[in-house]
Write a structure and sequence with these properties.
6 domains, 32 strands, 4-stranded antiparallel sheet, elongated, 5-stranded antiparallel sheet, alpha+beta, about 625 residues
Length: about 625
């Protein structure tokens, strides 16, 4: 409301007093500049809520304070505020405006400031609670961060239960490392409750708190799972990076975990042999994490070595690494690893390490278990990426899509063909500006490379392609019932086309053929197919047409689609009539017909040779 004349920052009310018919406000900005503002009684009455709302801002730190007590006098009232950082702060105002302060209290939110105060102002790390005291409606938290900075924080006892729960939860974190601890025991003596907690790194410690609030710690303990403890362990206390588990051994009756972060900080941790499913998931994620970055690795091979299993892993950026785990934990890794979605890792690995640009594949090198990709971004930064030869189909598909943008001119590259070469396969690509190029892939990746090329096609590409390559002279076409829905009939056509090795690209509406679905396919030898399925309400027709540069294969594919669509339509017609198909005979010679016809279809009687048209 008021602005400092020196720094133009907002000013907040420290106190106020009446001087005749004028309300004098003593103000201060967050930079320490003080000033006075005078308002008439009429102005103060009309703006009371806005004026006295600024009483709730601490002028030392800018935190929103809580009103914990009002000492109401005949002339003046001492309003007692509580700052979460600076504690109790009294402010005096005329008693006449006490109701305005109460109204302002209901419109302020002090929860955000309380939660923000849980971070150490010197290093930014979260505080852990050492002890809690309660004095005159104020909870005093003695905090310490993992680096060793100590401080006090203040919370009103009548704060929202969710706020109290969050602040009390810091009691079960280790003061030395910040890790989530396990509660071993809670004992009460008088007004004090003593909580014994176990840190996975620093062992046991005891903490005190008011006994009347100990029930909240018990509720928090019930909600804290072993999995959440393990996840909190896998954060480096020195730099807050995620930790990778390098090895797991059994030390007497516990697991010993040796961990490290990408910045080189190491840590050893202990976990019990009996772990819940959530904790096992967290440990599996830690083992599969790369030692040098946050990417998820792929398992290449395993080898038993004594009581441990040595796992060979590959990171898309940092190559091959080895880790050792116990045999029983490896069983969990083997079971869970296929269920982990690694597409986020794939997308991250396709970004250049030096700039935000996406990389393109220049060349490939096939090794025993890994495919090495030579990549380059638009800014000329070159590097390598490494993918497992046994990676999931969708992961390989995404990597190989980067083949089809030329790394030199960034225009689209065409796939000419894929040829077998011993145990490998050779991919032939074509760029309009840089002509032919070829590279080697594992033979088992041929379909992934081909399917990745299909993913690069758009509807406009297919329209141009259909005009260039040979169009079929005949199309598969049937009549559609006048009551049928065109969209539903198109779905039937799409299901028939989808049984072949073609990719659905897009759909559109044509003025002549109605609703259209466009498909694209490419054989490994280079043959291309554009398949168009359509359903027209206006023409009452279903149609499948194919364009290809191989007339022979085109006719075979069209014949299969024609017969499949015919069978589906016959089944639909039979169900709609709600009766079994009757024997159909030739009206000329009464001989049985070989097959049933659809409306609009013409067939020839095998006995007398007369063409029969069904209406």
């Amino acid at each position: 409301m008021f602005v400092c004349k020196k720094c133009k920052e907002p000013m907040y009310v420290l106190s106020s007093e009446m001087r005749g018919s004028t309300l004098r406000l003593n103000c201060q900005c967050l930079k320490g500049h003080k000033g006075k503002r005078d308002l008439s009684r009429y102005q103060a009455d009309s703006m009371g809520l806005e004026i006295f709302k600024s009483l709730f801002t601490c002028t030392e730190c800018g935190s929103t304070m809580s009103l914990i007590h009002s000492d109401l006098g005949r002339k003046d009232t001492d309003e007692i505020f509580l700052c979460p950082i600076h504690g109790v702060i009294p402010k005096r105002i005329p008693s006449y405006y006490h109701n305005a302060v109460i109204a302002a209290r209901d419109t302020t939110n002090n929860g955000t400031s309380i939660l923000d105060s849980l971070k150490c102002p010197k290093c930014g790390q979260m505080f852990s609670t050492h002890d809690i005291e309660e004095k005159k409606g104020v909870m005093i938290f003695k905090y310490q961060c993992p680096i060793g900075h100590k401080d006090l924080r203040y919370v009103p006892t009548d704060a929202h239960p969710a706020i109290l729960k969050t602040t009390f939860k810091r009691l079960i974190h280790c003061e030395q490392c910040g890790l989530l601890c396990k509660i071993l025991d809670t004992s009460t003596k008088g007004d004090i409750a003593r909580i014994e907690v176990l840190c996975p790194v620093h062992g046991k410690t005891r903490k005190d708190m008011p006994a009347k609030h100990s029930w909240m710690i018990e509720k928090i303990a019930e909600a804290v799972s072993e999995g959440s403890i393990v996840r909190s362990m896998l954060n480096c206390t020195e730099c807050s990076s995620n930790l990778s588990i390098r090895s797991i051994e059994i030390d007497r009756d516990k697991y010993k975990l040796k961990c490290s972060c990408p910045n080189g900080h190491t840590r050893e941790m202990i976990q019990p042999l009996e772990l819940d499913e959530e904790a096992i998931d967290a440990i599996v994620a830690g083992v599969l994490k790369c030692n040098e970055c946050d990417l998820v690795t792929d398992i290449l091979s395993t080898k038993p070595t004594g009581s441990l299993v040595e796992i060979e892993l590959v990171c898309p950026i940092h190559q091959v690494m080895k880790k050792g785990v116990t045999g029983n934990l490896y069983k969990h890794i083997e079971q869970r690893e296929p269920q982990i979605d690694k597409m986020e890792t794939v997308e991250k690995s396709l970004k250049c390490e030096k700039c935000p640009a996406i990389v393109r594949i220049k060349d490939t090198k096939v090794k025993d278990q890994v495919v090495e990709l030579k990549v380059e971004c638009r800014n000329g930064h070159s590097s390598e990426r490494y993918i497992s030869r046994t990676a999931e189909y969708k992961e390989l598909l995404r990597y190989y899509m980067q083949l089809y943008e030329c790394y030199k001119c960034h225009s689209c590259r065409d796939l000419l063909r894929i040829e077998d070469a011993d145990e490998k396969a050779e991919v032939f690509l074509f760029c309009d500006q840089h002509k032919d190029s070829n590279l080697v892939i594992p033979s088992e990746h041929k379909e992934e490379v081909r399917d990745a090329f299909l993913q690069t096609k758009s509807l406009r590409d297919l329209e141009i392609l259909a005009d260039k390559i040979q169009q079929t002279k005949r199309a598969c076409e049937y009549q559609m019932d006048a009551k049928a829905d065109a969209a539903e009939m198109l779905e039937i056509v799409k299901n028939v086309i989808g049984q072949h090795s073609v990719l659905h690209v897009d759909e559109k509406t044509d003025s002549k053929t109605g609703l259209e679905a466009w498909y694209y396919g490419k054989a490994l030898n280079g043959d291309e197919y554009v398949v168009i399925g359509s359903a027209s309400k206006e023409n009452l027709s279903l149609r499948i047409s194919i364009a290809s540069n191989n007339e022979k294969k085109l006719e075979v594919m069209l014949a299969e689609m024609r017969e499949n669509l015919r069978e589906v339509l016959l089944r639909i017609q039979t169900k709609s009539e709600d009766s079994a198909p009757q024997k159909i005979s030739c009206p000329q010679c009464n001989a049985g017909l070989a097959k049933r016809a659809l409306p609009g279809e013409t067939i020839t009687c095998d006995h007398c040779g007369i063409p029969l048209h069904f209406g």
